[in-house]
Design brief:
CATH class of the largest domain in chain A: Alpha Beta
Structural class of chain B: mainly alpha
Distance between the termini of chain B: 24 Å
Largest sheet of chain B: none
Number of helices of chain B: 13
Largest sheet of chain A: 7 strands, mixed
Largest interface: A-B, 28 and 24 residues
Shape of chain B: elongated
Strand order of the largest sheet of chain A: 8-9-10-1-11-19-12
Oligomer: heterodimer
Shape of chain A: globular
Structural class of chain A: alpha+beta
Helix content of chain B: over 70%
CATH superfamily of the largest domain in chain A: Dipeptide-binding Protein, Domain 3
Number of domains of chain A: 3
CATH class of one domain in chain B: Mainly Alpha
CATH topology of the largest domain in chain A: Dipeptide-binding Protein, domain 3
CATH architecture of the largest domain in chain A: Roll
Chain lengths: 569, 296
């Protein structure tokens, strides 16, 4: 049977089998759903590191869940809130996204689109028209109806129609459009129709394979639906001041920078999926030691971003550490304008010098997995067959000598001192620098504070900087377009290879999903040869919970769904 | 013979006075101990490559967080598998310049500014002192961080910003001493004898001011070690992986519960070296101040 599973996996990896077909075949072979998911996403590796996906599961409800998170939330507006913390905190509990994934299902396929406020999605045969059928009878928590007009109103807040020679409606927001332009620009939406209150039709100029999967993506605003009535009464600031969505929780109050509370929505449209906890309080505890102390002291039930080195002692004291792969990728980009990196052998040598497995296991204490794809582990185009060279310092040294650098060279590595999803950037960069030094490459680190780093990073690498670092990713297959397309602003290393663009165009315009995925995998394979982007590790994003917490399921994405969680007193 | 008459000839400090100062210093056991510690630590910093076989920046990826007193690693290893003793030794190469250079630079700058402010006491002097007073209003660490953030992290930045923040303090010490001496009988006498202001400054005022600066400066070197560690802790010091004691402490905080030695060892090094500087400074104060010396 193992051989059959291997064959199926192999077919899946090489695009001969869709994800769904793979699952069907694996299930027919008698594999349990969690095993299938584990095969696809590396969950098995997380379990091996000693981290379950869930806490204790038990039927029940009630209690106030207190969550300690690593940073402040910003704007409570689904179009303007940026960063996973803002979405995770409040927005995902209050607002529902037009496109939902099964993130809190321990056995679920994490990239699968599931029905929620959208009942089903149809795509036309030419791949240019998407019809969204909405769940009937839903109202926003202010009592106004959630219908096709409300969806269109929300889309028009972020979809810039001026490029089509039309006037934008009054709710159009330039900031929202700017943070969402990465999606709406390539999607080429030309028409948005609402033939009846339960139907929304999106008409694109050309097929765009990542249309549905890309819609809920990016840490910069998503497709959360807010009530147009709030805006009509109080304008854009009103949306953030009084968030009104269709979700299982209602906004109660907030003290910016301190805490935010939400309560159970008693009139949630889907009683079967209603919130279990009575109330959730989110606390911003930016210092990791403070979060640990608050958890130990019983002040909070859940902490995000715990210090890796504290996990073992927390587990000994009865706390539960959960972890699960998500779209995260911690990666380097190399500067194509630096003479030494123009030679592919030098890039290969540098990559082969880095002991990624050692970093994940020892430095990061098993809270990360070595990355083997440009795609996140939850992405359907993720593959372990892209062919990235293995850690081999001896071979690396030889390659370096062949390329004309027997004594190595000097280079500069620009990194932030911390930041969203960054894990522990400075020690990780030190680890890489030490690995590079072993083959003779002298890497000098240049650290920067996160916000100034983001500006410097987005501006692209200037001469004199050999490499920089970033960490994010998407469950959507679209992601490789952002760092690897030669014309993308996030191609910060100025990689010049147009073959990437050809493959990405073919992937994006594919009508058949299998073709799209096969092309995205080909991008990965090409990068494994060219190595402009060096995948380093995938974070397992451990979370520590108190044993009182029930039905806590570690999310497989950047956002978290807390509706099933409750607290046993 | 009166003191004024003796000083008016402005002869060099008599040999016996130097002797007395040396004796006074040597009588202070803590000062001598401090000096020995500093000399040994300095020698260890210079001889670091000979004293350890480990590279302070490249660790052993198979031997991370080895506890102290393990074979091969007397003080253990950090989360990157780097030998902590090697990092302490090489870190001392930063700690000494960080302690001494800002104080010497600020001493020179403070001497000039303080003499202008304290001795001349005219419009320029007033302007200088009031400008320095403005700097007093800003907390020292905050000012240093502001400067370091503007200039970007690194050793030169640390030294420059520490020199800038302590200059007003040294200038204040100089100005006060100079102002006190300005109306002293021996200065009046020198003026009556027709000495130029410049000559009075050089031969009458300076010999009184210099010991004050030396004593104040030496005491401050201890504070500089702590200060520089603070910079390293905040990530404003030398760039990683360069061993910096402050950065070693903040790096070790990640594993404080499971591997406390990573933070503790550099912490002890900072305490020992800053205490040594302080005791030497105290000893010098007693030795160079004639009034304190006679009281002993």
């Amino acid at each position: 049977m193992a051989q059959k599973v291997d064959d199926a996996l192999n077919d899946f990896v090489h695009g001969r089998l869709s994800r769904r077909d793979f699952v069907t075949r694996a299930a027919a072979l008698g594999l349990a759903a969690p095993t299938i998911a584990a095969l696809l996403q590396g969950t098995a590796a997380a379990a091996e590191a000693g981290f379950p996906i869930t806490g204790p599961m038990e039927e029940g409800s009630g209690g106030t869940l207190v969550v300690g998170q690593e940073s402040n939330w910003d704007v409570l507006d689904p179009c303007l809130g940026t960063g996973a913390v803002t979405w995770r905190t409040c927005l995902y509990q209050i607002y529902e996204s037009l496109v939902s994934r099964d993130m809190d299902n321990p056995a679920g396929l994490v990239d699968e689109i599931v029905p929620r406020i959208t009942k089903s999605i149809d795509r036309s045969a030419d791949g240019k028209t998407y019809t969204f059928h909405l769940q009937p009878g839903i109202t926003f928590s202010d009592g106004t109806p959630f219908d096709a007009d409300a969806v269109a109103w929300n889309v028009q807040r972020q979809w810039d129609q001026s490029k089509l020679g039309r006037k934008n409606p009054p709710q159009f927001d330039t900031t929202a459009a700017a943070v969402r332009s990465w999606f709406w620009t390539p999607a080429q939406l030309v028409n948005l129709r609402t033939p009846d209150p339960e139907t929304v039709v999106f008409e694109l100029a050309a097929p765009f394979a990542p249309f549905v999967s890309g819609m809920p993506e990016s840490g910069l605003g998503t497709m959360g639906m807010s009530s147009p009535e709030v805006w009509k009464k109080a304008g854009t600031p009103g949306i953030a001041a009084h968030p009104v969505g269709t979700g299982p929780f209602l906004f109660e109050s907030q003290t910016p920078g301190d805490q935010l509370s939400i309560v159970k929505n008693p009139k949630y449209w889907n009683p079967a999926a209603a919130a279990k906890a009575d109330k959730i309080i989110f606390k911003a505890l930016t210092d990791p030691a403070t979060r640990v102390a608050a958890l130990r002291g019983g002040d909070v039930h859940v902490i995000f971003a715990p210090p890796a080195q504290e996990l073992a002692s927390l587990q000994r004291d009865g706390f539960i550490v959960t972890a699960r792969p998500n779209p995260h990728l911690w990666y380097l980009q190399l500067n194509a304008n630096e003479p030494y990196f123009k030679d592919r052998r030098v890039r290969q040598a540098f990559f082969m010098a880095i002991n990624r497995a050692g970093m994940a296991k020892r430095l990061l204490k098993g809270t990360a997995l070595p990355a083997i794809s440009v795609n996140g582990r939850t992405c359907p185009s993720w593959t372990d067959q892209a062919g990235y060279p293995a850690h081999d310092p001896a071979a690396a040294k030889k390659l370096l000598a062949e390329a004309g650098f027997p004594n190595g060279f000097d280079t500069v590595f620009q990194i932030p001192t911390g930041g969203s999803g960054e894990i522990d950037p400075v020690p990780m960069a030190e680890w890489i620098a030490a690995d590079a030094a072993r083959i003779g490459i002298r890497v000098k680190l240049r650290t920067m504070e996160w916000i100034s780093y983001l500006h410097a990073w987005a501006a692209g690498m200037p001469a004199g900087i050999g490499m920089n670092q970033q960490s994010w990713g998407m469950t959507s297959i679209y992601w490789p377009n952002l760092p690897l397309r030669t014309t993308s602003v996030l191609n910060v290393g100025h990689q010049p290879d147009k073959r990437f663009d050809v493959l990405l165009d073919e992937a994006n315009s594919a009508i058949d999903e299998k073709v799209a995925i096969a092309n995205y995998r080909a991008v990965d394979v090409l990068n494994a040869q060219e190595l402009w982007l060096l995948p380093i590790v995938n974070d397992l994003a451990p979370v520590v919970i108190s044993p009182k917490v029930r039905n806590f399921v570690h999310s497989s994405d950047w956002w978290w769904d807390f509706k099933k969680v409750w607290v046993k007193s | 013979m009166s003191a004024a008459a003796e000083d008016v000839r402005a002869r060099p400090v008599p040999r016996s006075a130097r002797r007395q100062a040396a004796d006074a210093f040597l009588r202070d056991r803590m000062a001598v101990a401090g000096l020995i510690v500093l000399v040994l630590a300095h020698a260890a910093a210079i001889l670091a490559p000979a004293l350890t076989r480990w590279d302070p920046t490249i660790g052993d990826e198979d031997g991370i967080l080895v506890p102290p007193f393990s074979p091969g690693h007397v003080l253990g290893t950090d989360e990157q598998g780097r030998d902590i003793l090697a990092r302490i030794l090489f870190g001392a190469r930063l700690a000494f310049p960080e302690a001494v250079v800002p104080v010497v630079a600020a001493g020179a700058a403070g001497l000039v500014l303080g003499l202008i402010g304290g001795f001349f006491q005219r419009v320029i002097g007033e302007a200088v002192m009031r400008t320095l007073d403005v700097l007093f209003a800003i907390p020292m660490v905050l000012l240093a961080i502001a400067i370091a953030t503007t200039l970007g992290s690194g050793l030169p930045t640390v030294i420059l910003s520490m020199a800038i923040v302590i200059t007003p303090y040294i200038a204040r010490v100089v100005a006060t001493t100079a102002a006190q001496q300005r109306s002293a009988p021996f200065v009046e006498a020198a003026r009556c004898a027709g000495f130029s202001e410049w000559k009075i400054l050089r031969r009458e005022i300076l010999p009184h001011v210099i010991p004050a600066v030396v004593v104040y400066g030496t005491t401050n070197m201890g504070a500089m070690v702590v200060f520089a560690a603070g910079f390293g802790f905040l990530g404003l010091g030398a760039q990683p992986p360069t061993p910096d004691w402050g950065a070693m402490i903040s790096g070790g905080m990640r594993s404080l519960a499971s591997a406390p030695w990573v933070s503790t060892v550099p912490g002890i090094a900072i305490v020992v070296i800053s205490l040594a500087f302080n005791y030497v400074g105290d000893g010098l104060r007693v030795a160079l101040d004639p009034r304190l010396r006679t009281r002993l």
